[in-house]
Amino acid sequence: MTEQPPTAEYRIEDLAHISSATVRTIRAYQDRGLLPRPERRGRANVYGDAHLARLRQIADLLDRGYTLASIKELLEAWDAGLDLGGVLGLVAEIDGPWTDEKASRISRADLDTAFGGTSDEAAVAEAVDLGVLERVPGRDDEFHVPSPQELAVAAELHSAGVPLSAISGHLRELRGQVEHIAARFLDFTTEHIFRQFLDHSPTEAEAEEAAVLVRRLRPLAQQTVDAELARAMRTLATRYLRHHLTEALPPASRGRAGVVATADGYERAGAGDGERAGAAPASASAPASVPVADPRPAAGTEPLVLPAETVQAVRALVGPENTAAFVAAAAQREVHARTMDTLTMTFREMSATDDAHAGHEAPSHGAPTGHKAPGTTHR
User: Rounded CA gap, 108 and 115, in Å?
Assistant: First the structure.
């Protein structure tokens, strides 16, 4: 029978020295349930090799970036008999970066240059509070930048005239809304995908499967938000443009004319609101080869046939309710421009005619002999 070597025993001061922890830290780990209670022998507390191994595990996980709360969950899984390797792989996938963007550093001089060349301590403090900048220990002239892209956006907005305080306020508001979206995405994926792994302690195979799923689904949240943000910006930007274009139109041209669909897919501008209300909608499948005007123009208007594609483009730009006003305003602007061109051309032609007449007049008696007057020839 092989004799087992005696188990090492430590007082708390000895354990602290061997593990490179402090007595206070060891007691804090015990209170949080991270470290088992020592064995009580008389008036002394005795620790063993299991405590030393656990302290070294905790230190290793802390070095890898895990929080004490996540470490407790991992150790509980370990104590339940689960292979810690699978759980660590799953946690590593979740705790890993959710973007391909690489962090960088920036000097204080370059930071000031990027934001107009003026040092603003309040703005820097706000950026640090938001996590856009992180101070480098022992270096007052350098910052860690977790997201260079986010800092570049702030610099571009500032160069366009947005105050730094407004940028910070906008980021705080945006961050709250995005965190709500992230929480909803997590709830959604938990309900439909990860619920099977969370109602019990997962096996090694289940932990690995969950890690693979996290890796697959990681980019989906950003891709979905990117696509929906692009759609929303396109829709809202068009509405904003419609609103401002409508405000910019002359009051006399707003709602003065209508647009009526014709039988061939063309539409006629110039009809009144009453006629537009009674007009039949354009057929999506009707040919658009020969324009046909409505035979019943409203009083005081003149039928004008426009290609359906043109009308649809204007509608998309300013909205159906402003289409006729926009066409009228655009036509008026074109007429005014051509009128100015005509007046300018007429003036130039009149000036040229006057010059020609002046050239054919007889030279004065004081004209030197041997010189030709403009427009004459010697015979």
Answer: 11
